[in-house]
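Re: folding output
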Amino acid sequence: MKVLVPKAYRGKLPKIDDAEIVIIDQRVPVPKEHLDAEVLVAWGQPPEVLRDSAERLTKLRLVQAFLAGPDPVVAAGFAQEVPISSGVGLHDGPVAEHALALILALLRHLPLAVQNAERHVWDVKHAGSMKERADDGRVTTLDGANVTIWGYGSIGSTLAPHISLLGGNVTGAARTAGVRGGVTVVDDAGLADVLAETDVLVMILPTHPSTAKAMDAQRFAQLKEGAVLVNVGRGNTVDEKALVAALESGRLAGAAIDVTEVEPLPAGSPLWDLPNLLITPHIAGGRPQNADKLLAHNIAAVRAGGEVRNLVRVTGR
């Protein structure tokens, strides 16, 4: 069995009996000599390369995506009989760590500290998340803060205990209400009431028609005044015009985003010039953990007719 792994993946690789692991350049179509591959790892390939692979790799028995969101892989058009496995769970730790870093950067006013350092200003009096302000009751610490995680899945449940350890009160928001691991989770019907008491809103929503611009002007109006927002989900889940308006008006004290609607973020975007907005270039993930174990399990499952983990339901091409 031949397994194609993009050189963009730098993590561990499994040792599998009778399997040949071939490292390929993910930027170009698969070479002719490797069109007999039975397993393709999707990680870093441009859409056109994935589409080419779907057409030319006719002997595939498994497409293993290391991406948490397998949308580009599904859209490539692999045959219906070829199982596609997503990388759900592989990025829970790194994305949760990044979200926590962005939260603390806002609450401990690190962006302002960096701005002051660039101006050679030593100011021990700034007390806001992103700009100078008095003690007006807005959140400046996780201790006692109400933190809402919108898109409460595996990443959210990884992040929640870390917030709790620092004294934050965590509430989740998802399509289905309930209690998960001791965290109360509300659905859309209960979200407005929760937002009204939210000091820190963390968004980890996936791409879906129902989540497009989910954080719009109406939702910003429902959010507690002076709150901060962190988005490590998908850029199209936030209405960027509404985000700019909320930051410029001061209703939103600060925000940190790892994703934008268009990536790379265009040079002319007004987001670049907002002093109370921290931007990272979609780097929250990018370090899949235990991908070797998932790949090994799914190859064994394909060989033995077992259950493929993280199976994505696809419709044919």
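--- second protein (sequence, then structure) ---
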Amino acid sequence: MSPYDLVIGDRAYSSWSLRGWLLFDAFNLPVKLHTARLYTDELSNLLKDFFPAKTAPTMRTPEGVVVPETIAIAEELASRHAEAGIWPANPAARAIARVLAAEMHAGFVALRSHCPMNLRVSYTDCARPDEVLADLKRLEVLWQWAQSQTGSTTWLCGDYSAADAFFAPVAARIAGYNLPVSAKVMAYVQAHLAHPSFRRWRAMGMIDGADQEFYRRSYPGRPWPGPVPLAARPVDGTTAENTACPYSGKPVSHVLEIAGRRIGFCNAFCRDKTVADPEAWPKFMAIYQP
């Protein structure tokens, strides 16, 4: 059976695409990606093959059924892959997780509008209006309620679930715009920033096309508050200690340097996503730290 297809927008900016992709990567489900730049004709042209969808992300099942909207994608994947743990197994925790995902899907308009997701930057301040502060208070109520009801300490409803995937872009917004939250909420945000799938997505987003002007802000900047990546840089030439790309197995054509070592990849994207955050990629780390 063919894998699922998933249409996504720019990784640095498309919060809905991040949610949809996490439903695959965080739960170890195979998927073939189809990417398109936002604010161009690329997305509308790509979606002509995914009727009746009009947004990213959009999934197509192995049988060819098109499923737009992250709520529908989550439910369909959960029904097909019960073993993956997309929703909690406990009925009470599962009900709470669905409440959280539904409110995230439909609400928090002020937060989304004033703080559009941009994984390439972080600011010291963002002139937040009262409506954004109200959304943050609602988030705190929901998250504390979920954790108190389920006894969870790191994630919202026990193990990482679709509810957490839905709030990953919110964590990115809180981190990116330095929004005022409690220590407990910030601990939840930090758990997202350190999550392996989130780190992989952000690493790709850092090098996935040019900056989008729509997301540019003039606020004072600061370093990204997540885990600090290992220092690596792209270098010229094809000389490397390995002969095959750790991801594809294809011959080396692009090389990075890290701690005085040269490790090769089959294309610029494979190399540059690794430069962005080497520890996000287990197959690379298997070479770097055998």
